[in-house]
Design a protein that fits this description.
Length: 483
Amino acid sequence: MGWIGVGLALLLPWLAGALALRRLWLDGKAGAWALYIGYGYWLGLPGAALGLMALSGFGLRPAFWLILLSCLAITGWAGRDLGWPKGFVAGELGAGRPVLHALRLRRIGWQGGLILALSLWLGWRLAILALHVWYQPLFPWDAWTTWALRARVWSELGQLVPFVAPERWATEQSDRLYTLEAWRYPPLVSLIALWPTLPLQRWDETAANLPWLGAGLSLGLGLYAQLRRWGADRLTSLFGVWLLMSLPLLETHIALAGYADLWLAGALGLSLIAFLHWVRSGERQQLALCLILAAAWPLIKLEGTVWLSLLVLGLIVARPRWGRLGLALAGAMALGLLALWFIGIRLATPWGMLELSTQAIAFPFIGHFALGYHPNWWALGLMLFGLENWHLLGYLLIAGIMLAGHRLIRGGEPWLRAAFVLVSGSLGLLWVLFFLTDAAAWLEQGTASGRLLLQFAVLYVFFLLVLWLDIQGVGSPAAKSSR
C-alpha cells in the first residue's frame, strides 16, 4: 500500500474516533464538530496502537489490516446516518466559520480582521511544523534511546518482542528478548510511532513522526471546541488556540517529533478540561471523555500515574457531597503514609522496589528518589520567567492563581475550586519533585523540567481563558449558545 496505507493508518482511526464520538454524543452546541474531530484523534490513534498491544497479548503479530478493518467497521456504524454535516458548512469545524466570515471584506470589522490574522498565522505555523516533521530526521535523544528504538525493533522484526531488564537479558541470552535502559517505560508512545510504518513494511522515520503533527492539530481543535462550549466567542476561542500553539516548547515537541511529553500533555490537558466541563455542567459525556483519556496517562509516561492524584483531589473539592468522605479517606491515607515514612519501609516486589523512609522514596514503575532540600529558586525563576520556552505563560499563571484565590475567598463555583486545585496542585507536585528530591538536578541542568511543565500547559492555558471569561461574566452552565 505504500504511502496510501500510511494515510489510511493515520486518517481512518481518527475518522472512526470522531464519528463514534459524534454518534454517542450528538448535540447542536457550539464547537461540536471541532470537539468530535479534536478528541476523536486522541481516541482513535491511541486506540489503534492499543489494538496492536492486545493482539500481541494473544501471541499474534501486529495485524495492520485487522485493526484497519475494525476502524472501518466503526466508521461505517457511526457514520451510516451521516449526511453533509451542517456544522461543517456553517464552519464549526475549527476556525472554518471565522475565516469564511472574515473573508466577507465589506463586513470584516476589527474582530473579523483579528480572526483572519490568527487563522492565517495558525495555518502558516502548522505548515512550517509539517515541513519539519516531513524532512527532519529523527532527532530527540529520548526517541533514539527509548520511544523510537522500540518501535524500530518491532518494525524490523514484525512482532512486539519484549524489552526486559539488562540483568535478565544478559542471563537468558535469548534472541527473543531485547533490553534498553528505560525498559520499564510504558509502550503506548512506541506503538503510536510503530503504527503508521506497518503498511510500508519497513521502518521509516517520517511515517513514524507524522502522528505528532496530527497530535498538534487535534490538540488545537479540542481546545477551541471546549472554549466554545464554555461560552467563549470565536475570536476568544481562536485566541486561546494561538496562546497554546505559540508556546515555543510545544512547537518544538511537534517539530522534533519523538518525545512522549506531547502525548501526555494532550491526554492530560484534554482530560482535565473535560473534567472541569463536567463539574460545571454535569454532562456525563464530558466525564466519560475525562476518564477514558485519564486511563491513558500511565500508559504514556510513568509520571502519569502520579498525576492521577490531581484528578482525585479535584473530584474531592468539586463535589461537596463527597467532600467529607473524600477528605476522610485522603486524610487517613496521608496519615498512614506519614507513619510509614517515619517508621521506614523497604519491600522488594515483582514490579520493583517499594521504599518509604526519611532518606528516599521509591515506587514500582515510577522510580527511586533520594530526599533532601534543594533551594532551586533561581533555576525555577529562570525556567518560568527568564527563558523563551513559555513566552508570558509564567507571569500570567502566577497572576491567574492569585486572582482565582481571591475570587474563591469571596465564594466561587465548584469548577473554579477544582481548577484552582488542579493548577496549584500540579505546581505543588513539581515543587516537591524539584526541591525535595534528587530530581532537583533536572531543574538545575534544564533537562526534564521544561518537559514536565509542558505536560500541564494545555490545562494552564484553558484555566487562564475561562478565568478571564468568568471575570467578564461570559457564559453560564446552562448556556447553549451556538454563536
